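Student: Please help interpret what follows.
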Amino acid sequence: MKKKLLSIVIPAHNEEGCIEKTVLAFNKKLKYEKIPHEILIINDNSNDKTEEILKTMSKDIAEVHYINNIPPNGFGFAVRKGLDHFRGDYVAIVMADLSDRPVDLVRYYNKISEGYDCVFGSRFIEGGKTIDYPGFKKFLNRITNNVIRFLFGMRYNDTTNAFKIYSKETINGLKPFLSNHYNLTVELPLKSIVRGYSYAVVPNYWTNRKSGVSKLKIKEMGSRYFFIILYCFLEKSLSMGDYKKKLAKKMKNDLKKIYEIRFTGELEKKQRTWQILCENYFQKFIDKNDIVVDIAAGYGEFLNNIKAKKKIAVDLNPSIKQFVNKDIEVIISDCKKIACLQDSSVDKIFISNFLEHLNNTSEVIEVLYECFRILKSDGKILILQPNIFYLKEKYWFFIDHKTPITHESLLEALKISGFRIEFLKKKFLPYSTKSIFPQTSFLIKTYLMFDFLQFIFGKQSFVIAKK
């Protein structure tokens, strides 16, 4: 049986004294155990030689790569960045200072491979151990963990231990994350337990760092730990199971059902319409040597009809594979974290009728940041977007429309994400392909030729922005 890929996420801020030793130790042990793995280091705004060391290691060791965390910085932000970009079936959070042992990670991996959703380490059960743990910190640790045990009625006694492993599905089911700092180490396991994910507990060792400075500031973290513990307790007590594990799978089924209901009998007509749109309008923005990504590609209407060197469809709905042409690469992924696409790797990104489906404006900007990341320098993003300014109440006629967007707010979001606006057509296409008017090839081509028709009937804006 083929072993599953393990990702290690290591947040690193000014860790020049220990990061290389830590990475080499974990890489050596996992190779020896024949565990397929990647080591993803998040360089969290280091101002020492940390990034220089990471550059060298990523060139020399195939399993090692790193990402620079965009401010705001901090432990939680760095780990969250890693959790948005790992590629493995399992992901473990490991400290940069080698306080965690590679041999313990192997035990975690073997245990989660038995079918658990998570494996938690404990330094305070038989077989576990702490070495050089500062006395006052240990005292606070035991108080905090015992309070958590009492509130949540559980036996696990080391919730604040960051060294844990989760399945990819579990991580997706715990989002969105709230913690920006070390309290993320409490949020992840407590949400896992409250939401009904299965877990096992194994002993682990912890050794205090030999070099560098601990980034944990006790005075700053007290209220933050209290906040996240209180949040998880309220979720446990009041949410009526709304976030339980079963919901993640149900959401995917709901998405598939919505598409089936909405587009039954429409797909052939949509494909014909998009063939005309691409040939007579959108193709002029796409060079035939471009690498093009369609974000939330739907049924592949755009990519099926556009000419490019390489075409990549990204969508959460696995049914897309049935509808796209054979020359299109399909990535089933959350569009906020397309881990298998490298930085600065694509020429053009196309987004159509997607941003309104996101939960809030923060997620809109998160998607745009991810687009900025994968675009090459001077690469361009093309967005076709329903405009609530012109649609008014009709914007909400679809049950999965959640975030209102105008052309002005879209431009603002693009600028926040680092883009330069190159082109804007406030009123372009009608809202929907469903219409009482005939949609012949001649009429669509005529519509595209005359701006006054677009001014009368257009309800969607079209924007091009440059990295």
